[in-house]
Amino acid sequence: MKYKMISPSNSLTEAAYKNNLPLYTVFELTHRCNLKCLHCYLIKQNKSELNTKEVKTILDKLARAGCLYLCFTGGEIFLRKDLLELCAYARKLNFDLRLFSNGTLITKEHAKMLSEIGLSAVEISLYGRKKSHEQITAKNNSFKKTLVALKLLKKYKVPVRIKAPLLNINFNDYKWLIKFAKKNKFEYRLDPVLAPQNNGDCTIQRFQLSAEKLKTIYTDKKLNKYLINQYEVSTDVSLQDVPDLFCNAGKVFAGISPQGIVYPCLQLLYPLGNLKNQSFRNIWHKSKKAKRLRKYSTKDCKECLKCSNIKACRRCPGIALLETGKITGKSKTACKIAEIQSKIQ
Amino acid sequence: MLISHSKNIAWRVIDGKAYIVNTGTSCLHSLDEVGAFIWQKLHKKCSAAKLVDLLLKEYDVEKTVAADDVTGFISELKEKGLIEIQND
After folding, report:
1. Chain A CB within 8 Å of residue B10 CB
2. Is the ipTM of this complex over 0.90?
3. Pairing with A294, which of A7, A128, A169, A243 sits 20 to 30 Å away (CA)?
4. pLDDT tens readout for residues A23-34
5. What are the boundaries of each domain within chain B?
């Protein structure tokens, strides 16, 4: 008999895939927000939210289901009066907890408490210098408030990551953002991809970077590893075979809405069930919809198979669904980026 | 000497193995089944002697071997910042 520490990452990924565990879960606690960001994908609705007890019950279910990495997002989560209580409860259940916030409502007391609770990080949306930031948030003084929050979090040693979408409004601020993050020893992530709104309305994509600006971003070697998600490895396309045109959504990744609806991902609006009246097990492991989703593969994206840019494609099935009405559809957003990536090679 | 989980960790037991994140460093560690057995006992404060007793009840092992292994294991967990040790 010997007690060993074993190589962790591969075995965790294998176990999660083998058992379809929702290892990574993003939980939207509210859709309410005190800002009106131009690029926001949420639709204003007056639906009721899960109450404190209901959220806690769902957290119990997620812990039992094997979720390890949990993220609370919104809307703006600090509009919930019970946020710190929910954070403390999640940490008691041994989740690795991360928060997404615009920072404008974070007080000294919040920062102190978050430090005690022990978070993996608070990810703060900062879009650039004051003029660009407030042009995007559509709220005067929001820049100053977010900066105060960053200062407080730093003071109380709460890990911070700055994140920003790159739009045609703040493109000229991206180097400033990097400099600001480095100066303050914050992590940072930038995202040049804009999703349509959750009702499929693509008009916010008018803020998407032009092809020329996207090319600048993707050829900036210093920036490449700090780009978010599906596009971050794209400069190595020559080394890749035909990529998987589906992602981890619904396999080891789950999303939960403020009403308790389970999605494969908050970007993939393919509802699997509601935790208010169903068990997680029934929704995640037994539902026909979840099983059907996991069967999709690259060969089902028939239009994409003929595409000469397929090797560079990091298609998001959720964006494809919003744009085309089909999970297997050809996403305009992905096509645009893949074309640029292919030309870079 | 009482041993317990550190404050800044997150963990799950999956397929008998324990996966532990040090949330301060984001490092992921994992333990085999015997390690996971001990790990779960450290959810509450526990002495090394108590851990040895629990192991003897669960596994077919010599007491001296179990005691040596627990000492080494505790030392490794401590080094990685996964446990706190409080003197009596």
Report:
1. yes
2. yes
3. A7
4. 999 999 999 999
5. 2-86
